[in-house]
Amino acid sequence: MTDKKIPRVALPADVRLDTLAVREGLPPSVWGENSEALFLTSSFRQPDAATAAARFANEEEGYIYSRFTNPTVTMFERRLAALEGMQSCIATSSGMSAILLMAFGLLKSGDHVICSRSVFGTTIVLFGREFAKFGVETTFVSQTDVDEWRRAVRPNTRLLFAESPTNPLTEVCDIRALAAIAKQAGAWLAVDNCFCSPALQRPAEFGADLIIHSGTKYLDGQGRVIAGAICASEALVNEKFVPVMRSAGMSLSPFNAWVVLKGLETLSIRMEAQSARALKLAHWLEAQPQVERVYYPGLKSHPQHELAMAQQTSCGGAVLSFIVKGQAGGGAAQARKNAFHVIDSTQVCSITANLGDTKTTITHPASTSHGRLTEEQRLAAGITQGMIRVAVGLDDVEDLKADLQRGLDTL
Ligand SMILES: Cc1ncc(COP(=O)(O)O)c(C=O)c1O
Q: Ligand 1 centre and the CA of 32: distance in Å?
């Protein structure tokens, strides 16, 4: 690149995160708009043929074609990178395509990956089935047993992949310990930060090299669009990911970028309010006789409570799961029937697999998000038929208690 760069927003160098969340991006256009513009255009006019040539040759920064350059997308990327405390970011069409782009950019046939076996079900399928077709082998290990990660390292290990807390068990991994293992192995550590968002957790502060986002969740925050992103160093983004994006085109549309960009402006207050409601609901669920167990990092009973409080700015997040008591001897079929009964008795919660919405969502992970796993993979991930996941939104928590009480009382 030459010194012809896309300009930056003029802000004091020491502004804090809440200010960056509403102001980082690009300077306004010639019209001086205060709310960021949506550049809904496939391509950009070039002032002359020589400039077009310089831009296509990467000798000058400038907007060319929205598969790989669009100002609204840049604004989202810069803002998210700033919130994560990373140098750079590249936006993608979905959270899954962020993982796909990461793999295309970093891995080749013969490489080895270590991945937590508790990550989002589709991520397990992507690593275990799809990447395997291209000669990338993945070893799945315990989310919380650091020694198992260490033992899984091979000379060809290139990537460690974790998610914290996990979906739906809310298991928390020790990011700092995994970063140390990755560093020693000469590998990268990628952390899917979807559940916490940078408002609650900034994995780069603990040594993660790459942060994966499903922008579909808290970054949008209102369940409107599918989006994704990778945050990383400028070198990784420019050298490994931008060329793949340009050829493979898993790009974020400008409209979806605009939605998540504006979502970032309210991220921290939403996360705070939704987490406070989740904590109240988790305490209440723990006291219900029909509930066998509650999984929520903000509860003292959570096995990694201390670690979660240290990594997640003293906050449990807004997702919790619980197991409805089965009937003695009823087995998995009865547990599933009970879970379905509680879900079907709700009148406020939305029965949908998405999370991160202002509307509280409820789902049965074993038959939805993790339905494509084998029973063996599901049980290895700790997902049983009696489990229900609630992603707490901005509904009144008393209404949520009443909603769940209806089903629990009639089991
Ligand atoms: C933790 C986690 N990572 C990634 C994804 C995939 O994101 P997307 O649906 O935007 O592709 C999800 C989706 O539920 C998720 O929960």
A: 36
